[in-house]
Amino acid sequence: MVLRRLVPAAYRPVLAHRVLRRLILGFAVSFLGDGMSFVAVAWLAIELAPEASEGLWVGGAVAAYTLPGVVGALAFGRRLRRLPAKRVLLADTLVRGVFLVVIPLAWFAGVLTPALLVVVLAGSSLLHAWGSAGMYTLMAEMLPEEHRLAANTLVSSINFAATIAGPAVAGVLVTYVSSALVIGLDALSWLFLALIVVSTRLPDSQPVADDPEEPAARGGLAFIRSHPELLGLLALTWFFNFLYGPVEVALPLHVTNDLNAPGTLLGLYWMLFGIGAVLGGLTIGALRQLPLWPVTVAIVVLWGLLLVPFAFDIPIAVTVVCFMLGGAIYGPFVPLSVTLVQAKSPPQHLAAVLAARSSVLLTAAPLGTALGGPLTTALGPRGTLGVSGLATVVLGVIACALLLAREAFTPRRLARRPR
Fold it and tell me: What is the pTM of this model?
């Protein structure tokens, strides 16, 4: 009873849902596994690669763990969009788990090479855009609309928490055990989720038959293109993630070059960012009747404003606080944007729309990170962080102007419509 009072009212219906509680447990375990692999994949690539080309192999391994999801979303879309969400999720968990378990087995057998590592990692991520879509589609099917934001926020916050705990656990394990075995634990985490999906009675609603005249029948991207609001949300999210990419390059160089500080300060920045993201996400998710679009646009503007102080020679404590507040601002963006997609997409096509969204967004941060290298060389770390912040503010202002224009135009259009 005391524990119930400690849980905000918005989350109680979500946690009271017995089936969803089981799924969330599986999601949490798989998120932790991926959090550990965030460190282990790069570390294993360093161990396997020749010294002269280790940078290329590390980059290839990290990219292989995410980017092939774009190919999978496009290549398997026609087949997977006809399947129920639980089967789509199960397909991803099995593919991810089975491919990843090959890595420790090959390592034990002494046949693991950098090329084999990249190929196996690429295979493990082929269906991951669809798996993410299946996860959010299942939650939308199990919950009424008023509880979806809380559920999305809870899952997103657990994911952020895993990005804090996972690397910390992996740092110990790769030092004292083996990075290949850490990836094996990640494989087991996905097979654990697959077991939960198989053993739990989940919605098995069949999507409607394809109608060639309907945009969704041609795929999630066609449906998004035919709905300006979804297309605008996707564009906003893509550029938001793209402008975040340079931060991952500039922040480490800011710590080492501008501040002459040790790596512990970089760890502090990211740890506090993750803590802020968890707290900010849970706080927003506990609010009811939230205006989704205005809050989403406000997040973009505020995150950009909190990056701007990095461009100036100010005390480290100020930028540390800004980055933690930035995490609290940034954290709710994913659940808010997913909730908007769930609200604007027909249930029978939600998985296809979410998979298309995921595949497009998978390209944003890597391209932004790639831009971060030459940008940091030209402007320096401080300048890159400041420019990223200012560009993000401009993006938010443009989105705000378009949102206000749409709201002003809609009543006039309705007033002119013949009755």
Answer: 0.78
